[in-house]
Amino acid sequence: MTVSPSTSAHTIVVSDLHVTDAQKVRPRLPLWKRYRQRDLFIDGSFDRLVDYLLGQVNPDSELVLAGDIFDFDSVMRIPVQPPFHVSWLERRRGLGATQDKSCFKLHVILRDHPVFLATLRKWVVSGHRLVFVIGNHDIELHWPAVQQALIEALALPDRCRAQVRICEWFYIAGGDTLIEHGNQFDAYCLCNDPVSPTIRWRGQEIMRVPFGNLAERYMLNGMGLFNPHAESSFIMSMSEYVRFFLKYLIRTQPLLAFTWLWSSIVTLVATLRESFLPAYRRPLLLEARMAGIARRANATVGQVVALGALRVHPAAFTPWKLMRELWLDRALILALLIGVSFQVVTVYNVFSPISPWWALAIFGVLLPPFIFYARGVNSDVDSTERVLRRRLPDAVQIAHADRVVVGHTHVEHHTRLSNCELINTGTWSPAYHDVECTQPYGRKCFAWIRPVDDGPRQATLCEWTDPQVRVLPVVDGAGQRPAGLLAALRAQVARPLGKF
Questions:
Q1: How far apart are CA 301 and CA 293, in angstroms?
Q2: Does residue 330 sit in helix, strand or coil?
Q3: What is the mean pLDDT of residues 230-254?
Q4: Angle, CA of 232, 238 and 244, to the nearest 5°
């Protein structure tokens, strides 16, 4: 059964599942990547949600998986006999993003998640449409061979294959809802050119991977006590880092500072290298490519061009911003202060012998300005919601939509603005505030857009409490200042919910 893309009565939107391969338990390091161990998989809960939805919706409905459904960056397995070259860095931090390596990573993920795969198949075979919108952590879904491998893994009957589509970065559902992952509004995680997402490097075509993904691959893959799905686990103040080190790392990873330093440098170099290379374009196929993107997204070519123009400027073109996010700016300034202190003593010693311990006194004088600078540096990762709010009027006008549904920030909310609705579906990822994974971050939410009598479709943001559904309250954000938006939303999600 093929469902017309323009007549879906119900649209269900879920994002940020971050399905990846299972982490083997290490007896000596039981907390190493605890968030990726099998007992914390969301597969069973997601399957029960789909069963619930199948009993509620008509057979002309669609499930939109709005980005970061698969987490390619966390996969660190290597084939026993690789059919491709594997560098020393890939053996330590995971394979790169060539087409054949991305296919291998997808097979690894799907092999560890048979229940999740069966759930998606059940939805499609029941007569519904399944839509993937590519995010930043599953950016490797842009590869045609990876898309084909995913379709093949679903093992669908021929009559159902047309019900599955993969959209490059947005999808217009029912003519009233614009769905994106949201990473195109994040300077650290956007796809520079979703029409031509690859580059050429050393004779190979590779996927251009954003800074945020490279940071997870090269840094967090080697720092297994930090949870990449909860920013609070790795974006801390200096005092918080010290307490975290003394509580957990001094016994398990005492040389973390060295790991952080070389991993940060590798991340910075790889980001600059990939970002400044030109996109690999095929001019003769560009028209067909644009038409295909528009067809899959239920849009026109003009809408594809206009929505593409709303993406932010990549942070990779401002290297100091990257260094600030990696803490390399503070490391560099601290190294310069130490060098200046000893250089002053060395120069003075030429004219009058003094103790080298005076270098410590000079360093002590220079240290307070450094501390003042370090305490004043704030991460820019929270800016995505503010940028999105500024660009929403243009987005809804381009898409002729009543609402925008995104994910990416892992902060669920339903906000009513002056000219539209903004829904963020949060995350289903294994995000926890603590290393032991006992304090969950966020809720398992989904957006539900459905018909109401003879009027226009209405949207609700729901929480799946397994086995019940609850509706989150709508926030009036018409007069809210963008600068304080994310803090207000994080406070909002702690309020009581109403029953569905």
A1: 8
A2: helix
A3: 80
A4: 60
Q: Concatenated DSSP letters for 15-81?
A: ----B-PPPPPBTTBTTTTGGGSGGG--HHHHHHHHHHHHTTS-TT-EEEE-S-SB-GGG-----SS
**Using one digit for the tens of pLDDT, what is the confidence trace for 250-286?**
888 888 889 989 999 999 999 999 988 999 999 999 9
**367 and 387 inside one domain:** no
Domain co-membership, 366 together with 464? no
Phi, psi (rounded to 5 degrees) for 219: -105, -65
> What is the number of structural domains in the chain?
2
Cα 327 to Cα 10, 128, 217, 321, distances in angstroms? 45, 47, 17, 10
Q: Indicate whether 214 belongs to any domain.
A: no
Query: Residues 150, 271: contact at Cβ < 8 Å?
Result: no
And the tokens for 150? 């995913």
Domain boundary among 337, 353, 376: 376
Cα 94 off chain centre by? 17
Q: Which residues of 57-90 are buried (b: 16+ CB within 10 A; e: fewer)?
A: beeebbbbbbbbbbbbbbbbeeeeeeeeeeeeeb
Neighbours of 314 (CB within 10 A): 20
Average pLDDT over every residue of 239-254? 84
CA–CA distances in Å: residue 82 to residues 60, 113, 148:
43, 23, 21
Helix (H, G, I), strand (E, B) or coil at 256: helix
Same domain, yes or no, for 487 and 343? Answer: no
Residue 361 within a domain: yes
Convert the pLDDT of each residue in 122-146 to its tens digit: 999 999 999 999 999 999 999 999 9
Q: Read off the DSSP letter of residue 440.
A: B
Question: Is the distance from CB of 192 to CB of 184 less than 8 angstroms?
Answer: no
Do both 340 and 438 map to the same domain?
no
Q: What is the spatial distance between Cα 243 and Cα 250, in angstroms, rounded to a whole number? A: 10
Residues 337, 426 within the same domain: no
pLDDT tens for 343-391 read: 988 888 888 888 888 888 888 888 888 887 777 666 665 677 888 888 8
Q: Which two tokens stand for residue 369?
A: 């300005």
Beta bridge partners of 476: 416
Residues 202, 349 within the same domain = no
310 alpha-carbon distance from chain centroid:
19
In this predicted structure, the answer to whether residue 20 has a pLDDT above a threshold of 50 is yes
- Domain range for 464: 11-209+281-315+382-499
DSSP-derived secondary structure letter, 221: G
- Cα–Cα distance for residue pair 280/274, rounded to 1 Å: 12
DSSP type of residue 245: I
Residue 426, token pair as written in the block? 């949060």
User: Does a structural domain hold residue 259?
Assistant: no
Q: What is the pTM of this model?
A: 0.89
| Two structure tokens written together for 75 | 């996969």
Same domain flag for 309 and 428:
yes
Q: Domain check: are 32 and 78 in the same one?
A: yes
Please say which residue of 376, 392, 414 terminates a domain.
376
